[in-house]
Design brief:
By secondary structure, the protein is mainly beta. The longest helix has 15 residues, at 3-17. The termini are far apart. The chain has 2 domains: 37-105, Immunoglobulins (Immunoglobulin-like, Sandwich); 119-287. The chain contains 4 helices and 21 strands. The radius of gyration is 33 Å and the shape is elongated. The strands form 5 sheets. The protein has an 8-stranded antiparallel β-barrel. Strands 4-3-6-7 form a 4-stranded antiparallel β-sheet, with no helix packed on it. A 3-stranded antiparallel β-sheet has the order 1-2-5, with no helix packed on it.
């Protein structure tokens, strides 16, 4: 057999082997002709969206503020007031279609773990009690965070039991309650000889440093998380330490840097720092 015949035979075999097999095609049906859903206002900026499109099995939502979700019925929380166009894309065997509706949110949600995730460490997204930590250095002062002028001793809580039983309770809604348990540490500028005294023994000018309810705000300042207390007499650690000074009367607001909030295996530990002018004070607190 000559070369031409061999090539011709191979060509025929190749065309036969590559002959396409025609199979029966199964119709997938048609996409939804329309998409519908209900909207239920649950209050507190919560809305429930429920698909009512028949014959669909995948439901993808876009809530108009950048939020998305998937499911037949879904509850979504808006954080900001405004008008939002909600879009549902519903799928069946034949494809998909979309439908839209509008919702109106009357007011901003306000402070919460949803709007400010950093609140979780501080408040547990509910409330969280902080007290001065045990051990050396719970109270610290120095020219900077690495050099010490003075720090509380290992057993300082025995010398100042009325300071170590104080509670600072932070709530998710931005409320802070300071509870002295009826007594507090009072120094010479308050008219006492560095001793524990009852709240009721304070002169009127110092009374705002006793138990009370205040507010707070969290903010990121160039990468440093800060907590600002609002309200006359609000403080953490020592009342005399404020931004840029040590004072002898209560002030309306103080801002602390949150150095860290960690867990040492048995409790949460928070370190607050404040620059009072010539140096820094640090307060180490715990939550169990």
């Amino acid at each position: 057999m000559n070369t031409f015949k061999i090539l011709l035979l191979l060509s025929v075999l190749f065309m036969v082997s590559c002959d396409p097999v025609v199979e029966d095609k199964q119709s997938l049906g048609t996409p939804p002709t329309s998409v519908s859903f209900t909207v239920t206002d649950l209050g507190d900026n919560n809305f429930e969206f429920t698909n009512t499109t028949q014959g669909t099995f995948i439901h993808q939502w876009q809530f108009g503020d950048g939020g998305t979700g998937e499911g037949t019925s879904i509850v979504y929380t808006y954080t900001k007031a405004g008008d939002y166009e909600v879009q549902l894309t519903a799928f069946n065997d034949g494809g998909f279609a979309t439908g839209t509706d509008r919702v109106t949110v009357d007011e901003d949600l306000g402070i919460s773990c949803l709007t400010l995730p950093e609140l979780e460490d501080l408040t547990n997204c509910d409330s969280k009690v902080w007290t001065l930590d045990d051990g050396e250095g719970a109270l610290f002062v120095g020219p900077n965070a690495g050099e010490t002028w003075w720090q509380s001793a290992e057993d300082e809580s025995l010398a100042r039991p009325c300071a170590w039983n104080d509670e600072w309770i932070f709530f998710e809604d931005g409320t802070m309650i300071y509870d002295t348990k009826g007594d507090l540490w009072a120094e010479d500028y308050m008219g006492f000889a560095f001793e524990c005294v009852n709240d009721g023994d304070l002169a009127e000018s110092f009374a705002p440093w006793a138990s009370g309810e205040h507010s707070f705000e969290l903010a990121d300042n160039e990468g440093v998380l800060q907590i600002s207390l609002r309200g006359l007499g609000a403080f953490v650690g020592l009342p005399k330490v404020v931004n840029g000074a040590e004072v002898t009367t209560p002030v309306d607001g103080i801002t602390y840097d949150i150095v860290e909030i960690t867990n040492d295996g048995s409790k949460d530990v928070m370190i607050l720092e404040i620059n009072f002018g010539p140096g820094v004070w640090r307060f180490r607190l715990k939550s169990e």
